[in-house]
Amino acid sequence: MSKRDGFAAGEGLPPAVAHSVSASRQWVSEELTQSAEHVAERGRAEGEAWLARLWWRTACVVWGLVVALLLAQALTAVGTGWTAARTAGLLAAVLTGGALTSASWFHRARGGALAPVIGEDNRLSTSRAVAGAWVLFVAYAVLVLVGRLAAASGSAERDALIAGLELGRGAGVVTVLAVVCAIAVLVRRVVGVRVLGQRLQKVRAHRPRAADLLTDDAGRGTFADIQYVVIGGVALLFAAVRLARRPDQLPDLPWGLAVVVLISAATYLAGKYAEGGRPVILSVVRSREAGDLDAPIRTGDDIEIRGAGFVPPGAQGADRLSRMVVRIGAVHVHVPLVPVRGGFSNPGDAVLTVPVPADVEPGRVDVQVVTAAGVETNRYGIDVTE
């Protein structure tokens, strides 16, 4: 960042290229590209090391929650006494924590217990995280009932516990579980198909972050993700309270709340269908500086490509921007990086400027942009004169 800001202020340019705008721009772009590649390589290595250490942290968090449950049960047992339901809940938490710890060990190179909710782009998946939370909760609730059934002494108590597993008691929870799991599978399919069809641009992150659950790939908060996490979390908290109050049956999630969760899931899915889009070139014009005469496009001139979607979300770094290429006829031109304080003025998401190399044959040629995600725009024809 300091080197980029220094170049933006005109510092550090060698005298051999300082006299030429095009030469200095090319030299600065190459220097920034090389530096960005080294930084990106270190970032990838640090991300892999961070993932390898994450399994221990997730295991500590899991057992911390088990200890917190033990303390909560001990405090609430004052005056009322310890019950079989409290023992069943604690044993279910220990079994769940043991399973998660084992999963963390076997997937320790991929983030431990968080490995199933990390997407192919190395970001936390909102749909998988919500579905995983509901799966763990329902599994815990069933284990509580299993513990109580094992400790039951009379046939009437055993029959009541078995009746607590009937669909009529937990229809709302079962419906929500089925929908959120289906959403997780469907979203993965939708994203994969749209990426392969070049209708959605995806770039890989260096490491997952907790903010990924509420933001898009560019780090901006998205309404669809936020409302899905918030409503799903509130419904899950309600179900947990119902389980604590009635540990002899599956939580009876009211249908009103279940329908709210279903509407939230539908909104999230609709947001996944609506996001993204293929980059497009709208026009190509000759770049003109102050004092230049109006003229046709010739080799050596700069052309300004106007459109939309040139910079994929999450590709604002120099290492990703340097991978952008413009095809002018049969010649591949790498888009030069033009630094400004705090970022880059070129390339931009809607406008980018490249020179027309001397190898381009005069005549009618096609211009096409290839983004950092590997997605190609439409072809746009321009006339190049001698």
UniProtKB/TrEMBL annotation:
UniProt keyword annotations, A-Z: Membrane, Transmembrane, Transmembrane helix
Domain of life, per UniProt, equals Bacteria
Task: Respond yes or no to whether keyword Protein transport is given for this record.
Answer: no
Q: Which GO terms fall under biological process for this protein?
A: carbohydrate metabolic process
Q: Which InterPro entries match?
A: Ig-like_fold
Provide the transmembrane region boundaries: 54-75, 87-108, 129-151, 171-191, 223-241, 253-271
Protein's recorded name: Ntegral membrane protein
Organism whose genome encodes this protein: Streptomyces zinciresistens K42
